[in-house]
Amino acid sequence: MSSLRSITLATLTKDIRLEWRSRDAINSMLFFSLLVVVIFSFSFDPNAEESREIAGGLIWVAFLFAAVVALNQTWARELRNQVLDAYRVSPAPANALFVAKALGNFILVTLLEAVMAPLFMIFYNLRALGPAWQLIPVAILGTWALVVNGTFFAAMSLRTRSREIMLPLLLFPISIPAVQSMVEATRIILAGDGSARFWIVLLLTYDVVFTTACLALFETILQAE
Amino acid sequence: MKRAFPILAVLTALLLTYSTYQALVVAPTERTMGDVQRIFYYHVPSAWTAFLLFVVNLVASVIYLTRKSAKADAVALVSAEVGVVFCTVVLVTGPIWARPVWGIWWTWDLRLTLTLVLWLIYVSYLVLRRFSDSSQTPKLAAVLAIFGALDVPLVYFSIWFFRTQHPQPVIGGGGSLDPRMLHVLLINWLAFSCLAFVVCCWRYRLELLHREVEEMESLEALRGVTQ
After folding, report:
1. Domain ranges in chain A?
2. Got the DSSP string for B7-60?
């Protein structure tokens, strides 16, 4: 157990240090989601009262697209110099690698959300009519839902042709219930119409189910070559 | 199996002819919808057959992951392919019926949305199989099939809750089915399942032959290299 934790921690710090030095992923994600926000604001009238109704959808779609940018380069780095092969022959548990990668992506996407959400609020004149604190569990659970499956499918698409396009093709259909839950919960909270409890519980269930599935099957995927 | 195949194919063709006759001529005309309702005898059996094939796909995928049997993988591939075809039939015949009866082509009703999401998941499964050409494709595909199956109940609950909150004015069906109609429906389902089975068998044989050819080709290439 302690080796699992120390390996996870070591991989995670390595990834964060690499990201800190290059800032490739975070910069491209930030700029990308900024572009999405601006383009959406031209497609829909952001000042209308209805914008409260659709803002939940817009914000999560923007994050989903931006997350794919980060997820795509999760494993690409490990392919250079056969790092992944070295990992395969090492006795380190596969799940330590997976958890580290998923946590790394989680931190990246959360950072992105922390920067972009206020911007979104300003551009769309949003203000939560419901209990605003509930947005925090929605954001955490929703981000994890995207990232855990995204990290897994990114590892899966490593072995396919044109893997950059493969990831969204695999990730989006499976993520439909998660995306619907995030969007609905955000909409309910922003519009202050009823309780978002069902959607938060559904998100939690989604997270538990797929985290378990990922941990159970990651070894199979990592060793597939 | 090779010898039984033509007999099976002929029997299926006869059964399909009979069931088509039943659906178009024998079944009573629906009082309010008229003849449009007859699409029901193609739509519903296709849906049942598609769902059955998706279950076969899941079972075969689990067997592949536990036993590493190449035959289970071929079964998984074949059932997903034929399942997507039947699911496409469902998604095409549905709107054709819905337009005159409901007045709209599509509504985001529970069953419609669930079928569409299932279709999307299995299309992504087939795309994965097409785009991945390593020897590990079966393993990746089997894992994706399991993820897809885990997703279905979550999709169900999310749409169910969404739709109970926003009731739709037009939910078709309800009420009871005329026993004669039910009879025709079941005959059609039997015929469609037989058709699916025959197509699956044919495609399965083709897949095994295809793999054999590939294996021979790579052996041939290897022999060329060593000589």
Report:
1. 2-222
2. HHHHHHHHHHHHHHHIIIIISPPBTTTBGGGGGHHHHHHHHHHHHHHHHHHHHH
Residue type, A8: T
Bridge partner residues of B34 (DSSP) = B30
Chains A, B: CB pairs < 8 Å: 86
**CA neighbor of A189 nearest in space, from A123, A138, A113, A140:** A138
Q: Determine which of A156, A205, A214 to mutate to test the interface with B (most B C-beta atoms within 10 Å).
A: A156
Instruction: Name the residue type at position A40.
Output: F
Chain A residues with beta carbon closer than 8 angstroms to that of B80: none
Nearest to A213 among B131, B136, B150 (CB): B150
CB atoms within 10 A of CB A133: 9
Chain B stretch 170-209, residues whose beta carbon is closer than 8 A to a beta carbon of chain A: none
Answer yes or no: do A220 and B148 touch at CB < 8 A: no
* pLDDT one-digit tens code per residue, B131-186: 887 778 899 999 999 999 999 888 888 888 776 555 444 434 455 677 788 888 88
Strands (E), chain B: none
Contact B147 A174 (CB under 8 A): yes
Q: At A44, is the secondary structure helix, strand, or coil?
A: coil
Helix (H, G, I), strand (E, B) or coil at A175: helix
B157 to chain A, any CB pair closer than 8 A? The answer is yes
What per-residue confidence (pLDDT) applies to A144?
Answer: 95
Sites in chain B below the pLDDT cut of 70: 1, 163-176, 227
